[in-house]
Structures are given as C-alpha cells and as structure tokens.
Amino acid sequence: MAGLLKKPLKLALVQLATGRCHPPILLSHQANPSIHPSPGADKSINLSHARSKVLEAAKAGASLIVLPECFNSPYGCQYFPSYAETLFPSPPSKDQSPSFHALSSLATESKAYLLGGSIPEYEPSANKYYNTSLLFSPEGSLLATHRKVHLFDIDIPGKITFRESDVLSPGNKLTLVDIPPYGKIALAICYDIRFPELATIAARKGCFLLLYPGAFNLTTGALHWSLQARARAVDNQVYVALCSPARDMDASYNAWGHSMAVDPNAQVMVEAGEGEEIVYADLEEGKIEETRKGIPLYTQRRFDVYPDISKGDVCEVR
C-alpha cells in the first residue's frame, strides 16, 4: 500500500485571540445587507496579530500552519456582512480582500503552507455571503478555496440558538488539495465535521489529513468537539485536526478552544487549553498504513451490502 503521507509533516494549530468590536451599523431596510464598511482597526489588528503567531509557528519548524474559523473577525451573524471580503475574480485587489493578500504574503514570509481558517466572503454577482477558507502555498499562491458546506443552524433549548443561514449561503463542493511533497489533504469548516460523508469521501480519495477550522461554543464544544475529531479519525484511519479561536468570555460568542490533532488510531496527539496558544503535532510517514494493516477496514467493507459513497456523483474541487 502506497503511503498517503509521503514524508513527515509538522503541523501547527494557531488558537488565535481576535479583537472584539462594537456591532456594525447596518441599514434598517436591508434584510440581508450588502454594505461593506472599510476593514477598520479591528480587522487590521487581527491580521497583524495572526502574522506574529504564524511566524512564531514557522520559526518552530511547522510546514503546515492553520488559523481558526473567522480569524480576521468576530464570529456572529451580525458581523459577517461588515467584515466580508470579495474574493472573485481571483486574485482580488487589496481593497477587495486585505485578508487574501495578508495570507498570501504571510505564506511566502513563513515559507509554509498556510490555511487561513476562514473569513466572511461576499459574492457581489449573487449578493451572497459565505464562510470561506483559503489555503496558500509556501510561494504565496492560492491553492484552494473552501466554502462551508453545512451551515450552523441549531436550537438547543435553554442553551444556544444560532442560525448562520440567516446571513450565509452554503458552499456546494468538497475541497481536496495536494500539498507537495506531503500528499493530499481535505478542507472543511466547523459544522462540516458533523457530516461524516465529507470525511469518508476525502479519506477514500487518498487524503492523509482532514482539517477543520472551527468555532464550537461552550455547549456544543463540551458535548462533541473531541468526540467528533476522534470519530472522524477512527472511521477513516487518517489524521484529523481542529483549530478553534481562543475563548473570550467578554465576546458575544464564546468559542470552546481546545484545538487538537488526532492520529489515525483516534488518539489525541495534542490539545490546547482555552486561551491563546499554538499547539504542534508531528505527523508520521507510515502511521496510516500501520493503523490500517492492524485493523484492515479498507479490505473488509461490504459494498455488495451498502454503497460506496465516494463513487458516483461527487462535487469536488481539486
């Protein structure tokens, strides 16, 4: 069996603290507002702070560095429109997307693959907003764009109600991408992890790592954050990594924290606490194949009894 991870990889998960801001002022007649205030000091501060932490991770030897969901802005439906940036046609201008250009420059400066967790995106032609992740090469080239496929719409009585779909639209593609010389990885965002089909398809198409920038909250994080990470790993016998914002109890949305990496045996390799920190995981060449040899799920599946969901009509971005 050919190795999915072709050489050892040092992964860094940057559990970033982002600056808070006052709620944006929106036009009262706009149910789904399309105004775009200038980025302002808070976004600039967040981008600058992200740069310092990414360079710290690069100095520690990380070859793949991950930022959290909504790393350049507060997380919340009330913030998405005012922080949204236009990404297409690509590349956008610096005025259209300061975050795009900051990430591209930072990937070059750090000489590492850089996953810009996610940013709010606005597509003018459709008047739609997305929650979008950007992956850049060590040369600063955009390798992949992933729009969150499954929107976070939940209602747990007495705990939390949240509806991303009040503002955001869903993406409609799986995102699998080669990062030479290591192999293929899959990108998804937060609530996407609750849908194992994405992970299963990615693993069967040869990905060695499933990456989920995510901002679980204090309710869902306590219930399912670690469970979901380990479940996707044990189901598919691949590496899984989740990158959260740091917890801020003064913010309008309280992220869970606990960024983590899990190995193909579903063992937690590293886990952050609640505050800002960078955690590292050394992904080993041959670990996936060793795990699959010991518990050979890949030769024991019964596609004569149930379908192989990785076959057939799959919308995929490579």
Structure description:
By secondary structure, the protein is an alpha/beta fold. It has helices at 40-59, 80-83, 98-110, 196-204, 218-236, 287-294, 297-300; strands spanning 9-15, 64-66, 113-123, 128-136, 142-147, 153-156, 160-163, 174-179, 183-187, 207-213, 239-243, 260-262, 268-271, 277-283, 316-317. The strands form three sheets. A seven-stranded mixed sheet has the order 13-12-11-10-9-8-15, with helices on one face. Strands 5-4-3-2-1-14 form a six-stranded mixed sheet.
Q: What is the structure about, briefly put?
A:
The chain is α/β, with parallel strands linked by helices and 318 residues long. The chain has 7 helices and 15 strands. The two termini are 23 Å apart.
Output the radius of gyration. 19 Å
* Total count of strands: 15
Mean pLDDT: 91
What is the N-to-C succession of helices and strands? EHEHHEEEEEEEHEHEEEEHHE
**Percent helix range:** 10-25%
Helix-strand category: alpha/beta
Subunit arrangement of the protein: single chain
Enumerate the spans where pLDDT stays under 50 for 5 or more consecutive residues: 22-41
Quickly count the helices.
7
Spatial separation of the terminal alpha carbons: 23 Å
* Sheet with most strands: 7 strands, mixed
Strand content: 25-35%
Strand order of the largest sheet: 13-12-11-10-9-8-15
Topology:
Blueprint: E1 9-15, H1 40-59, E2 64-66, H2 80-83, H3 98-110, E3 113-123, E4 128-136, E5 142-147, E6 153-156, E7 160-163, E8 174-179, E9 183-187, H4 196-204, E10 207-213, H5 218-236, E11 239-243, E12 260-262, E13 268-271, E14 277-283, H6 287-294, H7 297-300, E15 316-317
